[in-house]
Amino acid sequence: MSPPFSTSFKPILAAVALLYCSCTSTVPGPATRKEQGQVLPLCLPRAHAVQQEVRGLLMGALESGGTAAAFQACSRQAPALLLEAGKAEPRLDMRRVSRRPLGANQPDVWEALALDHFEQQLALDRALPQAWVQRLEADGQRRFRCYLPITMGSPCLPCHGGAESLADTVKALLVAANVEAPAYAQGELLGLLRVEIAAGDLP
Ligand code: HEC
Q: Between 20 and 30 A from 109 (CA), which of 9, 62, 65, 203?
């Protein structure tokens, strides 16, 4: 006797369901190509603009007021610039994270996964991806996060480098906060700029 109609179609139905799920996935993880195409044009131009602003601010502070001014610029003014840059429509929630931060900028679980991704790509390709997009569910709402790498340059050494290159101001801060020197070497991935957008704000 031939199997009933429904049984013989089961594998086909399962394959169709699997295909459907993989194309319209809602589980947290890397964004699909289509989602990347929606998220990146909204996030990248504003992220690049604010990254340039922060860099300009830091370099200006280092030149005019030395380490003390740069300390203020990186710890106070840079987060304020990120906040301001996120206020335009659509709203973007921007922050900087690092594995060995100077401030309270430890990554959350999704940001840690993004750091893993960038570090793995760096190890595999010897180059950092320009950006990476993640889909996640937070507080019952779907959101996307776009990450941009921040690399360690020589102007960053007095504060984010190893103990031998640290400025005295930073040494005092680290002792007071009971934090170890971040000890990033030049060219290393220092951290990520994380840009978050609600799925409802996508076109
Ligand atoms: C004179 C000191 C100083 C210099 C130079 C400096 N920073 Fe910072 N940076 C800080 C301080 C202090 C914080 C902590 C901010 C906070 O409390 O949120 C910080 C925070 C950061 C963070 C967030 C992660 C963390 O460590 O808390 C990133 C990313 C960062 N800086 C990147 C850079 C880059 C890139 C450069 C070089 C172009 C640089 N900084 C140069 C003092 C400095």
A: 203
**Span from the CA of 185 to the centroid of ligand 1 (angstroms):** 14
At position 118, the amino acid (one-letter code) is F
Distance 118 CA to ligand 1 centre (A): 19
Q: Is residue 38 within 8 Å of 203, Cβ to Cβ?
A: yes
Q: Is 140 left (phi over 0), alpha (psi -120 to 50) or beta?
A: left
Closest among 3, 43, 62 to 132, alpha carbons compared: 43
C-alpha 49/C-alpha 125 separation (Å) is 26
Instruction: Dig out the tokens for 6 from the structure.
Output: 């429904």
Under 8 Å between Cβ of 151 and 187: yes
Q: Is 53 exposed, middle or buried (0-12, 13-18, 19+ CB in 10 A)?
A: middle
Q: Whose CA is nearest to atom 40 of ligand 1?
A: 156
Contact criterion met (CB below 8 Å) for 133 and 162: no
pLDDT by residue (tens digit) across 42-55? 999 999 999 999 99
At residue 26, the pLDDT reads 60
Counting as low any pLDDT under 70, the low residues of the chain are 1-26
Contact of 128 with 121, CB cutoff 8 Å: yes
- What confidence tens digit (pLDDT) does each residue in 45-100 have? 999 999 999 999 999 999 999 988 999 999 999 999 999 999 999 999 999 999 99
Which of 202, 96, 83 lies closest to 141, judged by CA?
A: 202
